[in-house]
Amino acid sequence: MYIPRIYFNKSIKINTVIKLKKNMIHFCINVIRLRIGDIIHVFNNTNYIFISKILEVKKKNILLKIVKKKIDDKESPIKIHLGQCVSKRMSVTIEKSVELGIHTITPIISKKKKSEKKTFKKIHHWKKIIISACTQSLRNIVPKLNTPTTIYQWCDSINSTSTKIIFDPKATNKISNIPNKYKNVFILIGSEKGFDEYEKKYAQEKNFLKVSLGPRILRTETASIAAITALQVHLGDI
């Protein structure tokens, strides 16, 4: 039986009545078509779902009562941190990586100021995509979207003892070579044009392991999906 889900970004207590925000009303009335008495699941970035009942539905107001909560942990045992160079299909990368169980996403920006400004403007849109992907995939913990940064700053921010991977079709290592004990992995995915030599060299200086996803050249969004899937198969819950 299909039960609608919505995200509520505040703490929730049993037997309390909550009022949904204005930006959720259109979705609730016109998309999932809530009616008085309907049951809905609410998630709020915890490993619980809150089973709720609709009390009031109006054009400017929706009230629901929190009836009970239950544990619902769907998080992967491996924490994958994605450093993704911003691409034209960044929204697809974000959506699919959330569905596959990503833990954290950091948009990597180019050196150009125009690119940086455009990237910061898209943050709100990307956060909406993350919430939507969590709603669809039944995830209750919302992956973190970091502030856009450069490849150099991102590499510098990672602990030296962490497992760090940069993908290269010429590499001899494969994801299956990574020891099973590692549960916290940082992966770096380039743009459509790939990494330049300075970026590759810098990542290697920061102890990023070169790993191959096969001999074929993948589009950037395909590379992200393939890498996360392979890691989940090898170390996670797929």
TrEMBL record:
Keywords: Cytoplasm, Methyltransferase, rRNA processing, S-adenosyl-L-methionine, Transferase. It is an enzyme of class 2 (transferase). It is found in: Cytoplasm. The keyword Lipoprotein does not apply. One of its GO terms (biological process) is rRNA base methylation. The keyword Transferase applies. SUPFAM superfamilies: alpha/beta knot, PUA domain-like. Its EC number is 2.1.1.193. Belongs to the RNA methyltransferase RsmE family. Specifically methylates the N3 position of the uracil ring of uridine 1498 (m3U1498) in 16S rRNA. Acts on the fully assembled 30S ribosomal subunit. This is Ribosomal RNA small subunit methyltransferase E. It comes from Buchnera aphidicola.
